[in-house]
Specification:
158 residues; alpha/beta; 5 strands; elongated
Length: 158
């Protein structure tokens, strides 16, 4: 009898585990998975910014290719060259933002920015088709509740 009860309990546990891993709502996994929206290249200047962009990626469904704007130690670098084919630059350092502006990058205005980041879009000559959707999605996300929550709880970012 004990063996039969053990088999039934193990069977129930295996069924529940399989159901939860498949996303059945009985397990409380009603989490909305963002729709895959393709890739976007974003340039950043600080590890903190990369972590913030990770939250954006998880929330919006974009697959981000990152370009770091920091030159190797002791090197003078062209920020525009380091940005490569990025369609958005998200930076903390105002000097890097100024260098990008001088290269034709434009400020993304009209965005409430609780995280204190500078958001720039690539010059129109830099594959403008990629700018519209990604910049719009980032502006919408940045003005939403998640960045406000992250600003109020900086320990979540690290």
């Amino acid at each position: 009898m004990k063996k039969l009860i053990s088999i039934v309990i193990i069977g129930i546990l295996l069924f529940a585990t399989a159901g939860c891993s498949c996303g059945l709502s009985c397990c409380g996994s009603g989490q909305k998975v963002p729709e895959a929206k393709g890739g976007v290249s974003i340039a950043y200047d600080d590890p903190y910014v990369k972590k913030v962009l990770g939250y954006f990626q998880a929330n919006q469904g974009y697959v981000i290719t990152f370009s770091e704007l920091r030159p190797a130690e002791g090197e003078q670098a062209d920020c525009n060259a380091l940005a490569g084919k990025a369609c958005i630059a998200v930076v903390k350092d105002e000097a890097i933002a100024e260098a990008l502006r001088a290269a034709g990058w434009a400020d993304v205005s009209g965005t409430e920015n609780p995280l204190g980041l500078v958001v720039l879009s690539a010059p129109d000559g830099n594959e403008p088709d990629r700018n519209g959707d990604a910049v719009s999605a980032f502006k919408t996300w940045l003005g939403g509740e998640e960045p406000k929550y992250l600003a109020d709880n900086p320990d979540l970012i690290g």
